Amino acid sequence: MWPSISPTLRIAAIIIILAVLIVLVSFPLPIIVPLLAALSGIAAIDARAARRARVDVSRSAPATIVRGIPATLSVRVIGSPVLSRIRQPLPAELSRTAPDWSHVSPDTHGRIIATHRGVFVLPPLSVRVRGPVGMMRHDHEAGVIQYIKVIPDLPGARARAIALKRGRMRVEEGMSRGRMGLGTELESVREWVPDDDIRRVNWAATARTGRYMTNQYRVEENRNVICLVDTGRLTASPIGDATRLDINLDAVCAVAAAADAAGDRVGALAFAGNVVRSVPPRRSGTRTVVNALYDLQPQEEESDFDLAFRRVAAEKRSILVVFTDMVDESAAWSLLSGIPVLARRHAVLIASVADPTLDQAIRKIPERSYDAYRAAVALDVLAERKRVTSLLRRKGVIVVEALPCSFSAACVAGYLDLKRRAWA
Question: Quick one: which of 241, 245, 249, 242 has its CA closest to 233?
């Protein structure tokens, strides 16, 4: 923290000039002492004026911003004190492009970006005022403390949901998703045609009529979609500027918004060693889910999947989307042991963010022995993840792994696949 009163370059230049004159011209002491006394007196008066100057500066910042999306921070100077600079201190979770110790204009606009979710304190502005002579300056605090709420990417999730509702959502292969959701409630029985799914053949009706008959299902909504969010220690690992939990919560928003658009009820359950937050499924529940989960932070403990799964096992048949990390078989043992209980009753999707640094380590041509060791470790980690994924799929669940840039879209596509296959 800098002192509130400090000299300017002007007084430093005056002192240097006086020192040079004293050395070169050899001023007598009776002249030097009055000059220094006069300089000190002028500096004291200038400092007093700078300290007593009226500072009228207003700041405008949004109360809620989206993680990773720049937000506007505006500063307006009212009145005529001699302001030299304005500084906006920020917590470590927020970064800025401006204003930051920049030359002052009547209106200054800058951008702040949040790298993590939660509620963060925006301290008052620090305003530097020069005295009328320009020899001293004083740093004032202007404005009040403001709290900024940083939420996951809810606007992006809603934009995807609107695209889904209009039938314009496309998966990575470029195929249109079409209408959201197929039916799971029997409506009628009709004669089978070659384009029908063989799994929907009604064998009892086929035996009675002597012709292949197929079940016709009604498009059913009002299903429960529950997002289970792991907040254990593994979700604290960084991927770029964000943590796994940050990226997972962006995907939770996307799945919740898609469920709203599909007419499903959406809820959430966050857990680590214990259940941290719980939101019962409800219609149009995206905003409720975001408000309940936006400030979650990773816990320094192992995740108890068995506890979380027991909480939702008795729920009405639902789509369960589990957001977690799959490192190796030993770390995922709790997840693997609890999945069979859920898969008997619910449709389960396991979502995990793929770490791009692992692929980079493998693809990089080794230049040092360190690079070769790093690639070997990355291969081991990927092999363990592949093994865990294979074990999960054998237990009847869908597994989604995608890079951070496409993770939300991949999770939504997985949710829609469950609806299409009528597993919910």
Answer: 245
Q: Which domain holds residue 198?
A: 185-218
For residue 402, count CB atoms less than 10 angstroms from its CB and return exposed for 0-12, middle for 13-18, buried for 19 or more.
Answer: buried
- Is 394 in the same domain as 274? yes
User: Which of 108-112, 320-324, 342-346, 363-367 is the most confident on average?
Assistant: 320-324
Q: Do 100 and 176 reside in the same domain of the chain?
A: no
Q: Which residues contact 219 (CB under 8 A, 6 or more apart)?
A: 179, 181, 182, 183
Do 298 and 375 lie in one domain? The reply is yes
Same domain, 199 and 302: no
Do 224 and 214 have their domain in common?
no
Amino acid in position 393: R
What is the pLDDT, as a whole number, of residue 184?
52
Q: By the 8 A CB rule, do 243 and 202 touch?
A: no
In angstroms and rounded to an integer, the radius of gyration of the C-alpha atoms of the chain is: 32
Question: What is the greatest pairwise CA distance in the chain?
Answer: 126
Q: Report CA 252 to chain centroid distance, whole Å.
A: 11
Q: Quickly tell me which residue has 């007196």 as its tokens.
A: 41
Identify which of 410, 176, 180, 251 has the alpha carbon closest to the alpha carbon of residue 399.
410
164 and 199 inside one domain? no
Residues 270, 277: Cα–Cα separation, whole Å: 5
pLDDT at position 365 is 83
Secondary structure (3-state) at 133? coil
Regarding whether 288 and 413 lie in a shared domain, the answer is yes
pLDDT of residue 266: 94
Q: For residue 54, give the DSSP letter.
A: -
The confidence score (pLDDT) of residue 80 equals 57
Q: Taking all residues of the chain, what is their mean pLDDT, rounded to a whole number?
A: 82
Query: How far is C-alpha 300 from the geometric centre of its chain's CA atoms?
Result: 19
